[in-house]
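so im writing up the methods section and need the UshA record in one place, dumping it here so i stop losing it
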Amino acid sequence: MKHMAYKYKIPEILLLLFSMTMLWSGCNSDDDSRMTLKIIHINDVHSNLDTSDIELSFNGEATGCEVGGMARIAAKIAELKEPNRNNLVLHAGDAVQGTLYYTLFQGQADADVMNAIGFDAMAIGNHEFDDGDEWLAEFIGMMDTPLISANIEVSTGNVLDGLFSPYVVTEVSGEKIGIIGLTIAGKTMNSSQPSSNIYFNDEVISTQAAVNELKDQGIGKIIVLSHYGYGNAQDLAAQVTDIDIIVDGDSHTLLGDFSAYGLESSGEYPTMVQNLDGDTVCVVQAWEYGKVLGELNVTFLNDVLESCSGNPHLIIGDTFTRQDSEGYDYTLEGEELATVQAIIDSEPKLDITADDEYLAAIIATYSSQVDALGETVIGWANEDLLHNRVPDHEYNGVTLPFGSDIAPIVAKAFYEQDPNADICIQNAGGVRISIFEGQLTYDTAYTLLPFSNTLFEIKMYGSEIKQVLEDAIENIVQGGSTGSFPYCYALKYDVDTTQPYGNRVYNLEFKDRITKTYSNLQNDSMYVVVTNNYIGAGKDGYTTFATVQQERGEGTDTYLDYALSFVNYVKELAAAGEGLKALPYEDHCIKSYISTEDETDNL
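--- predicted struct ---
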């Protein structure tokens, strides 16, 4: 055997061996090749800076409590960041639109809160375009956080030109991480107000192009910060190479198992899928309105995602209520309170969190003005507009043969605020009071429509629209709430409650938006129905709303606040010198109503 001759001298050999040893050691060392990262995330806050009320179940007992609030979110973010230097705080879009904080301050309150928290990046959501290019440019100017979107293209010279980028590169413990932004294209173009100088490119192609640019820069740890929707995000992952994590928004999806507490979720937190390379991608989302803060813990081995786990934290206040045997609310104390606290303490996904005082002070500077806004006049009513849930029933000594005056007007307001709608259907129980002649304020609108509902679109055949009206009335027959009685706009019909289920609603006529004329509703024609997201999910007896979505895919939540939509409608009338007034008979949804003889069946 011949021996190879080495040209190195002995000291050089030792130096080379030492260098190779260090290199091998670095490749196998946890310190050098593995990186842990905590991603703290939120999405779809929609200007919900204050807490909101929710009902949870503890040991099977319905319990009222406060959830969310950005002052509490800030406190939880600080708590999660404290022991972890390797962290990112991300916002997956739709920071604005939905409460009086936006109506009054046009994004300034939201920006001040977000700047105080300190986000590393925010995806541009579809509702960031609701008030056009100029508003978004102003909002970006208010923000310390970089806004990103890889699939939005802006014409040269447009007010948004150069104000956002497709991605950002951040450095954590010496490691570069690419964060790619993504905005849902179709919904933004069709339901928001970007100008003709804004172009929305294909989400998958745009993401892959951004990935390729990052890879060319030697960046292998890649996060997609998308406002795209939970299902879309999973589909995206399968079509793109080299991505590791998707922090998503848009669909207001609750992930993680909260079934023990009475909340339904849509999947696991995190949801594990595969990218086009066959590598694992972790997909997360954090519900809505600042109720949940996501905590995702990931480990990279070199540039490969090795593991991810974490918790969606439902942020809860420290006061709880229940109803006594007579239906009156009371606040939990003593053993009852201790039992609830013990359950929460044992559950990593539930967190009783106090306000961050600094954030609470920022919000307080705006909340006093929000309270004052409640007294601001938005328009007027020309006459009394009474509300009775079911037609031909007495209301304070008055019988309304065609039912509510105000509910069909609410339906018209929603129809007018949603240009996609062919028909609006609104449940009687979603409308809470009568409106009386005189001035109308924000408080009037939010008392009339007090729930945290949004406008929701569902595509339905005419036969299915008839069916959902039948469902709603049958719900009353079966002992459900009279609040399920349906009121509509751009749709009118006769009702005979003496008939069996399936035959109570007949002679349905549909009003064409362009010609303003009525014609028979066609069973085999498809229509866009706008409703509120509560009954849109099949609640209150509206089961066909749910079944058609199960068969053909989910409807579209516009995330337009339903009370604010009514406010805008009243303001538009006032600007035209008009006040609210009862719909003429030819536009009222109830053409005729035949009651049953049984007064106990509520029909």
